[in-house]
Design a protein that fits this description.
The protein has 116 residues and is α+β, with helices and mostly antiparallel strands. The chain is built from six helices and five strands.
């Protein structure tokens, strides 16, 4: 994971930090001289770059969404929700009906990747 300081939709500081705490500490240092109600305190924020990339991808046209059990999620979101990898769920969807692909238990004996 990596984190950055953003001003709206653009990076404000051209640097990445390994943890949210490091980035937040840097942001606090940047804002030291500004009063509490200054606009920079409202605009600057720490962003998880992995989440930002995922949101950009899912905002594009053509990203498949699956509605099941009253929930409408992307394939990647479903994979995370049921504890499979994205590739594992795609493989299931290629060979099983949607309801079975989303509800069948993981194969025993095969270790599952867990997203970090």
């Amino acid at each position: 994971m990596s984190f950055a300081i953003f001003d709206g939709a653009r990076p404000y500081v051209p640097r990445k930090w390994d943890t949210r705490v490091e980035a937040a500490s840097e942001l606090l240092d940047l804002l030291k001289g500004y009063p509490r109600d200054h606009e920079w305190r409202q605009r600057l924020r720490v962003v998880d770059l992995d989440e930002l990339r995922a949101a950009k991808v899912e905002g594009r046209r053509g990203v498949a969404r699956i509605e099941h059990d009253g929930r409408n999620l992307t394939v990647r979101e479903w994979a995370t929700a049921i504890g499979l990898t994205y590739e594992g769920l795609r493989s299931r969807l290629a060979r099983l009906p949607v309801d079975q692909a989303l509800t069948a238990p993981a194969s025993p004996g095969r270790p599952r990747k867990v997203a970090a």
